[in-house]
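Mods, move this if it's the wrong board.
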Amino acid sequence: MKGTILWNIWALIAGFTLYFLLSFAQGEPWPVILQSFAAGGAFFLLTYIVRILLAQAFPENIAGFVNGDQPDSDVLNERADLVSGDLSEQNIEVKTASDANPAVASEDTAKIIRQMLNE
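Not the wrong board. Structure tokens:
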């Protein structure tokens, strides 16, 4: 099923609010409130049905593979190696940039802060 129960709750709130605002000026308060709750419940159930239809239209399991087709373990291992390699390269670049000369970086930062304060 697509989405979570929170989508249904948001639909309930929207249905209640919409019905309440459109009919409050035209009727007695208590029947309008009760009918607003009924409208909210209808929106809740309608959203549940829409979520079921979306799950039927776009079938995916938890891993995101359509119709249960699982890739080979080699493919998954290659993807994991690529991701971990990208992360280690990014960490190295960040370390070299910050380790180059920390005094220069602090002086530049202090200069920028002074200019901002003077403005």
